[in-house]
Specification:
277 residues; elongated; OB fold (Dihydrolipoamide Acetyltransferase, E2P); 13 strands; alpha+beta; 5-stranded mixed β-barrel; 7-stranded mixed beta sheet
Amino acid sequence: MIKVLEVRAMALRAFISDRRKGPAEKTACLLGLTLLLILLAFGGPMSCKKKAVEPEAATQETKGLEIKEGINDFEGVAKVAFGKYLYIPAVQGFDIIVQGQIESGDVSSLVDKEIRGKGVFTPDKPAILVADSLEAKGEDKVWRTVFKRTGEAVFDDYLDLRARDEFQALIDLAYDKPQSWEGKGKAKVFGRLIKEKVTEGGQQKEVSKIMIFDNKNNIVGNVLIDSMTDFAQYYLKKMRLFDNLWFYLTIKDTVEWKVRRFTDDLFHADILFCGIF
């Protein structure tokens, strides 16, 4: 800031002392000096901020977990767990599969605990670490072993990016256009998972539905959900901050016409996965 003031004073003195310039030249010079002073005044602090941010960004990059083929060490606080899937934000970009019994019960018992462990990475599963062993830090700050793998991981409901490419997005949906979904097999829809209470046979029960939105954010119908895989439920918890998601489905029976036209319930489906794309 001091340097900016010094340059401003020098420029002003030079402008006043130079009497050889005509009015037009002085006006142009004054405009140029004004622009220069504005750039100096604002450019200096911006440069300082940029220099202050760069070391921080560099530090964050070095904190990233470097994953190599084979055994990798990881550590962090577990935030989401369901079935055999575990999410630790510090292990960025990876879902951890815990195949086997956890000493404390099931994998959900690890949520909000500090975890360290070893995981196996293979290039054919680029977003997965298979937990080989896990330790959890107790309230007494002592690390205790809570899991040791004894068998091979099973990827029965895991849906990777390549498999997701096979799911086409359903468009132009409406209760009177069953051709939009019938015969599609696997597809994806954009919407919100909700729960409703309905009466069947004089008894109330809770059903899960996906409210489907079009590209103008209008509701165009509902999908009745019969089941969800553990992988889908894990991702639903992981994506809890998002109201609307892409749901990857196995399409099943079409709802009868007389019901469909009054309820906008289009068809039954099983959810295999959900995400932001």
